[in-house]
Sequence to fold (176 residues):
Amino acid sequence: MNPVANHFVDIWFVVDFEEASKFCTMIDNGAGCDAILGHLSSHMIKSILKWPFHKVVLNHLVVNNDLVLEPSEVKSAVDTIMEGWTKKHTISDVLPIYWAAQYAPLSYVDDNAFSKVMCNIGSDEFLQVVKCLPDNKAVGLSGIPNKLWKHGNVQVLGGLLDILNVCLVLGVMPVY
Fold:
């Protein structure tokens, strides 16, 4: 059995039994982390495509205090407005003085202050963060409340920690 099997299954079982079954099959067939994260990404895209589609119908428009009712005029006015919103803006390579000062390195911050930001998360640090999670926060897209994470066993929390560290190593964040 693939060594990542023990870590991923517990978490996915809670989220979606059907996806967990596919996930377990991938692991049993020896899929590596790249394949597993690729599957998670494609699942996210498929779930977005299943969202309901809502159509917006504009049958009139007020432009400069004039009511526009003619469909072709409404379309033309909407096109003009949208072009103004989405037009390409030229970007200068020269940063304005005000912003240059805002983005200048701070003299009191060590140059190496952020060198360990992408290092693996240690188990002690991770358990301390999980222990401090607030209970009264709304659940995210996974639907898993903080209270469940706080009561998770060693396998579940170890699996989540492994997933987070793989994400840091690969520079990829799976999304639901």
About this structure: The longest strand covers residues 61-63. The chain has a mean pLDDT of 76. DSSP finds eight helices and two strands in the chain.
